[in-house]
Structures are given as C-alpha cells and as structure tokens.
Specification:
2 domains; 275 residues; 9 strands; Alpha-Beta Plaits; single chain; 3-stranded mixed β-sheet; globular; Ribosomal Protein S5, domain 2; alpha+beta
Amino acid sequence: MHLSVEAHASKAFSIHSTGRSADLCSSLDQNLILDTYRSTLAEHHRIAAPLRLAIHNEIPLGMGCGSSAAALLAGVVLANHFGVLHWDDAAIVAEASRREGHPDNVAACWHGGFTVSTQTTDGQTTTVETATFPGDPAWELILAIPPTSLATTAARALLPDTYTRADAVFNIQRSALLTAAFAQARLDLLRTATQDRLHQPYRAAACPLLADLLPLAVEPEIAAVTLSGAGPSVLLFLTPGITFLEAETRLRQLVAPEVEILSLRIAEGVGRTIL
C-alpha cells in the first residue's frame, strides 16, 4: 500500500485527494503532510512556499499500517525539495523518525522490503541505522481491517512499564528468529517467530479482531497471525498453495461482515522516490 504525492509550487495551498480517507487527506487543517512540510522548513529557517498537492492514499488511517510514517516522510521530502535542504536518504529517514518518535515504520516505509532500524539521539542530533533487504514477493499476506480505528498513543498506553525477564527473553529470541526467517525466506519459521508476550496480550482488549483470528495460527493453511503495528488490524501470512479466496472464505466464518479483508504482497526493494 502506498501514499503518492505530486506537488507543484502555487500561489496558495490546495490539495486534491483520491483513495482512502480522501476527505481527511484533502483537508488543509491539521494535515500531517502540510504541517510537517511547514514545520521542517521553519526549523531550518526556510520559507514554506505554497504548494498544490495531488494525493492518492492507499493506506488505512489509524489501523496500524504506518499511515502517519508515510505522511511524515512525504512532508519531510517536500521540505527537502522545495526548501533545497540537500538531504540524502539517511537524513530524510532521521528527520521523519525524530518526528515519529521511533524509526520502525518510517525506515520500513522509505526502504520497502524487510527493514530493521535503531534510533539514537544525543539531545540535538537523531541518528537512524538501518539494515534492509528485499522481502520475498511470492509470500501472500492478508490484512484484516476492523471498522474502528485505534490511536497509537492509546495502544501504547495499554503496555506495562516493566516486563519479566522470561517475557523479555521470549521476545528477543523470536525477534532474532523473525529476522532470520525473512533473510532465508523461511515461511515455516513465522508461526513461532511471531509469537509475542510484550504487546499483543496487553492490547487484545482494544483489538478484538486479534482474538477472533489468532486461533488460525495453528491451522496448516496459515503461516502466522499477528497484530499489524499497534493494531487494531491483523496481518496473516498464508502457507504456499493457499489462495486468497480460500483464506478469505475461512476468515469470513470468524469475523463480522464489516471487517475489510485485503490481499497484499511485500514491497520489493526500495519503495521511495526522491523528488
């Protein structure tokens, strides 16, 4: 799923939006893309020239799919181009990550494929280190989207302040296994690698779709079931040979009719374009 933005210098700010949540994306007030564009330039003592934007959005808002990271990146890239900041990939990702508060979604959105990232801040400078490689485009995924969104801040507030050593070790082991599974295209490892004790148990009440679909993780047709981001959407990986129609039919037996079900693939390689 992508966020596409075409921008031209103009006499006044305007937005024409298509795709998901077009009404919200086309608003000039509290628009994350424009707000980021303006504030980034203001912080670097540049004038924010008015822009005419054409936006096409495919990313569900507030559903754990990284929509805010995409919008932040769009705003930073617009500032980089029209403000002539001369930032490279690393600087763009670092600036958007600083604004997001973490690099997880930003780095993945910018680079595509499978991306692992870390962020360090010395109080003035934010540095993001990333390792990325193409995901397997043959892997078939399903995204189940409930009708009600969940703010990331609300999802984070559900997490405890501390964890037991056993739960921390449990997740560290599976994080390492998850990276190895993607690196080696080992779909068979995902069922174990996506097990979680740090996030999903505490967010389950706010993400009821997870309780509906998590039992599918033991069925042979499903390679893994996990929250998408902070939720409330749920991501499923299909085992080879299972068609989307077959999997959708099974999911429809478990979820409400208003739940949207999408067929997805992993974006190959680098998924961004510098203007």
